[in-house]
Amino acid sequence: MIALVLRASFLAGLALALAACSPSNGAPDKGGHKGGPGAGMPPPEVTVVTVAPQALPVTFEYVGQTAGSREVEVRARVAGILLKRNFTEGAPVRRGQSLYTVDPAPFEAAVARAEADVGAAEARLEQARKNAARLKPLYAEKAVSQKDYDDTVSAEAIGAADVKAARARLTEAKLNLSYTKVESPVAGITGRSMRQEGSLISGPDALLTSITQVDPIWVNFGVPDNEQAQIQKEVQAKQLALPKDGNFEVALRRADGSLYEKTGRLNFADVRVSPATGTRETRAELPNPGGALKPGEFVRVILRGATRPNAVTVPQRAVLEGPQGKFVYVVNEKSQAEPRPVEAGEWAGQSWIITGGLKPGERVIVDGVMRLGPGAPVRIAEAKPEAAKPPVAKK
After folding, report:
1. Could you tell me which of 26, 96, 366, 389 has the fewest CB atoms within 10 Å of its CB?
2. Looking at domain 58-69+213-305, does it have CATH number 2.40.30.170?
């Protein structure tokens, strides 16, 4: 009796096990029958971007340093005692404003002496002219000798020359007197005074102060030779378009990360490459009416105006790194993830610029790539609208 009960229990358990293993509740089996609910997994959902070439603005950034557009050394043109300083150190000055006064007394005396010399020379010339006028009719009547007449004419000519020389000395004396007022040759900011009142200055070899013109202001920076060559290569390959005549718009990013409110233009680019730095010296000019920029500041120079026509970009998170280099996953016609080697250039905002490996219209997987493998089936999620500015490529 006990044996019959055990046998019945064994048969019932076997029947339940067979029923559990049979494909009767879900996914189809090989014969087309449905199995249990866990027998099949749906393909992973991914988001994609469609490759579409576009014109992409490109900026170039370099390290630069500001400098005054004019930096002038102020020197006296005459020697003498420095009587007075007429400006405040470090303050702005106008063009033609008086900066120093050199003792004018010796130069006033020289002017007076030169004026007297002019008067004497003019008197001698007048006397010579009168003598020549008296001898001329006498010479016509043969009443005086040829020598006397020639001496009179020569004396008149010598007198005229003496007047010219005396007047030249007077002009020089007046000019030296005017040089006792040392004036600013440009408008700008003064530096420290190198000489104080009462000092004896020896003339042009004595530096008095310096003036820096800060409006407009210059920014000097260097363009690496290898980068310049790469730019020319891309231009010739029509991968990069530069503004006409190299007329870049120049913006500045200051040391605190803020952008300077004014923009300017390039005004100089050296054709020579510095053997010490391997760069070409370049200079930009920007307005600086409020003097916000000071000479000597280190800034980031941003050149705008170049474009990259027909540029292909994909988000940075879509580009993976493999043993053979960078690659992306694209969705093929069978809705499968297909790995595609690509050539990536520089960053453009939050995207990579792809220079090779993708064609217009292909769908690149952006989100969900970490769950994929080559040939894995995928399901494309519906695109979610998002407001985003076009990326800006940076060199």
Report:
1. 389
2. yes
Give residue 140's pLDDT: 87
> What architecture is domain 45-55+310-394?
Beta Barrel (2.40)
pLDDT computed for residue 237 by the predictor: 87
- 235, 246 Cβ separation under 8 angstroms: no
Spatial contact of 328 and 314, defined as CB atoms under 8 Å apart: yes
b/e code 260-299 from CB counts within 10 Å (16+ = b): bebbbebeeeeeebeeeeebbbbbbbbebeeeebebebeb
Tokens for 13? 């358990």
Half-sphere exposure (Cβ direction) of 374: Cα atoms closer than 13 Å: 5
Give the ranges where the chain is alpha helix by DSSP (H).
2-21, 105-140, 146-178, 225-236
Host H or E run for residue 69: strand 54-75
Mean pLDDT across the stretch 231-239? 89
Asked if residue 187 has pLDDT above 50, the reply is yes
Number of C-beta neighbours around residue 308 at 10 A: 23
Looking at domain 105-178, what is its CATH homologous superfamily? Helix hairpin bin (1.10.287.470)
